């Protein structure tokens, strides 16, 4: 019995001698650096740091919204827009869709022309050197810029083709 009490006391002293953190993990410090910028962090180790007095975080779950049942007229069909929302007739919508398709096709043609021009200038990674590019670094920068422009134009062409393909399926 005496040994058990001695072990408990020695355990308590060893636990008390362990270093304890100065702040808890929920403390927030506002520090101001040399330029006057405010920085919020969980450690107040720098100069100009002040501990902020922030209350406990309380989170409340959102209330549930009851689901509306489908009306008997539209079995299984859910209306996205309210009844007072203006409707567009079929011919007007078809006209808008045709305009959108024409605009996308015009953009696609312009991007394809730009891509062809860039490919001609790029010449498979060996474009002609200009007179103002005596320094190889300037030439290398222009080649990299052309490479980036080519990748961007190819991405634009593929995105426009995908968009036009989506129009055809709708």
Main attributes of the structure:
mainly alpha; 3-stranded antiparallel sheet; single chain; 170 residues
Compact description:
The protein is mainly alpha-helical and 170 residues long. 49% of the residues lie in helices and 8% in strands. The protein has a three-stranded antiparallel β-sheet, with no helix packed on it.
The quaternary organization reads as single chain
Low confidence ranges: 4-24
Q: Biggest β-sheet: count, sense, barrel?
A: 3 strands, antiparallel
What would the principal axes of the Cα set say about the shape? Answer: flat
How many helices does DSSP assign? 3
Overall mean pLDDT score?
Answer: 79
| Number of separate strands | 3
Describe this entry's structure for a reader:
Helices cover 49% and strands 8% of the residues. It has a 3-stranded antiparallel β-sheet, with no helix packed on it. Helix 2 (90-122) runs antiparallel to helix 3. By secondary structure, the chain is mainly alpha-helical. The protein has helices at residues 2-17, 90-122, 136-169; strands at 28-32, 38-41, 49-52. The radius of gyration is 34 Å and the shape is flat. Strand 1 and strand 2 form a beta hairpin. The protein has 3 helices and 3 strands.
